[in-house]
Amino acid sequence: MVKCCNTGCCGDIEESQINEDDKIKIDFLYLDLNICNRCQGTDEGLNEAIADVEKVLKLTDKEVIVNKVHINNKEMAIKYKFVSSPTIRINGKDIQMEVRESLCESCGELCGDNVDCRVWVYKGKEYTIPPKAMIIDSILHEVYGDNKILLDSEHNKEAYELPENLRNFFQSVEKNYKLNKDH
């Protein structure tokens, strides 16, 4: 059985019953869901977007599988080729091809240092949380678009290197952990 996301919003499905072409795999990669407003808002928007397109997906015989991955160290960031928090990938493609970031105060509180997190660009405007319509557009494009000509984001084609911003974040978290442990 495959569980759709942590919330079970789409129910349990037999993995053997799903044709690869009928899967919409969504990876939600994030640094923190307890403090970070951007990660929390992205998680909420993703859940709402999936609920909103659920009827369409059922009519097209598509099954959504959501993997929520807490990137809590640099080894995980490297494993998932994590470039910015939060990230949503649909069938391996980042829904925001261009990485833009701005100061994220909540992640700064988390690690005790200045941290930049993702800014989402949709229809010419910048958002700190992806608009639900952006997520829905990306899901529907995966269902109805010509996926053979879609290019994966540039960071997946090149050799991955942990971005400096994330390297600094994990170093600050580790440093704060050691300081708190010693006291």
UniProtKB/TrEMBL annotation:
Descriptive protein name: DUF2703 domain-containing protein
Pfam families according to UniProt: DUF2703 (PF10865)
Organism per entry: Tissierella simiarum
